[in-house]
Design brief:
This protein has about 300 residues and is α/β, with parallel strands linked by helices. The chain folds into two domains: about 5-225, Purple Acid Phosphatase, chain A, domain 2, CATH 3.60.21; about 225-305, no CATH class. It has ten helices and 13 strands. The strands form three sheets. It has a six-stranded mixed sheet with strand order 3-2-1-10-11-12, with no helix packed on it. A five-stranded mixed sheet has the order 4-5-6-8-7, covered by helices on one side. Strand 10 and strand 11 form a beta hairpin. The longest helix is centred in the C-terminal third of the chain and has 20 residues, at about 250-270.
């Protein structure tokens, strides 16, 4: 394991060229989709000047833990509670070594607009939107999260950086590669970005999405479904029913009760206790005694009918 962030400098770059180093992290989703920060993180971020968290933090104690490594700046994500929304900005501008950095999660604050944006598979339209935000802020660097895909991309003098994700993107998926990034600000030269995969931290991680293949092709490289083959045949109507509950108060509380029950299965998959979520898992979930106290009988009956 490298002793600190300087060990990740690419060949040909001397340590004396480094004016500052920032640790970039995003999508930790703790404790909902991830139990804790990876144990190797303090070594990777050791002696960085600043840590930037690009949103979807989970609970704010995550920032407290990161601040034991280095000072932290953070922004909201789309998976936030009311308290985080009050206390974290939607975006921040940071200036380091003469470079203006825009830090934001990259989601749209309006859910309906965000949902439509998620249907877009063209990488270039997504990248153009990020570049547009960078130009509005007159930034030379945009650090963002949200996609769970580690990447760098440069256009019109603006460097886009996504450090990747620590946690899974949902209860229905597994994050295949858990990554962070180091942003080296150099004397009289362009910044250098190094991605690091946390399960193999001895070397840098090469991330190069094939833009022409579309966003979903890249997403499938970095995340994997937890739904087994048998359940997949009935999964689409089950998920659609759940999403409908999510958007209709007071049924949003019903959705949350079901989602928490589903997360108990997902966590067994993430820990390696089982590989996939099965139809039997969900049917058993619907018969949980305490679930009946919070979920109307009609909802449970509807979901059982979809699964059977």
């Amino acid at each position: 394991m490298p002793s600190d962030h300087r060990a990740f400098l690419p060949p040909g770059i001397d340590k004396g060229q480094v004016k500052a180093c920032l640790g970039l992290i995003s999508d930790t989703h703790i404790p909902r989709f991830c139990t804790s920060l990876p144990a190797v993180l303090p070594e990777i971020f050791r002696d960085v000047d600043l840590i930037l968290h690009a949103g979807d933090i989970g609970e704010k104690f995550v920032l407290d833990e990161l601040s034991q490594i280095a000072p932290v700046l953070a922004v909201q994500g789309n998976d936030i509670d009311a308290e985080s929304e009050r206390n974290l900005p939607f975006q921040q501008i940071i200036t380091v070594s003469g470079q203006r950095i825009l830090l934001y999660h990259s989601h749209h604050p309006d859910w309906e607009t965000e949902r439509q944006m998620r249907k877009e598979d063209n990488w270039y339209s997504k990248l153009s939107e990020l570049i547009r935000h960078g130009k509005q802020a007159e930034a030379t660097i945009v650090a963002f999260g949200h996609t769970h895909i580690p990447m760098t991309y440069e256009q019109d003098g603006i460097l886009l950086i996504n450090p990747g994700a620590i946690a899974s993107p949902s209860a229905f998926a597994r994050q295949v590669y858990k990554t962070v990034a180091l942003l080296f600000m150099l004397n009289n030269d362009s910044p250098v970005v190094v991605h690091i995969e946390l399960e193999t931290p001895k070397k840098s991680f090469i991330s190069s999405p094939e833009w022409d293949k579309g966003f979903r092709a890249a997403l499938n490289e970095y995340t994997a479904s937890l739904i087994d083959a048998d359940l997949m045949t009935g999964w689409q109507p089950f998920e659609a029913y759940m999403r409908n509950l999510m958007g209709k108060p007071p049924y949003s509380a019903v959705f949350e009760a079901l989602y928490q029950a589903l997360l108990r299965i997902s966590r067994r998959c993430w820990s390696g206790e089982q590989q996939f979520i099965s139809r039997i898992n969900l049917l058993n979930m619907l018969t949980e005694t305490n679930l009946g106290d919070r979920v109307p009988a009609q909802v449970i009956s509807d979901l059982r009918a979809i699964l059977c």
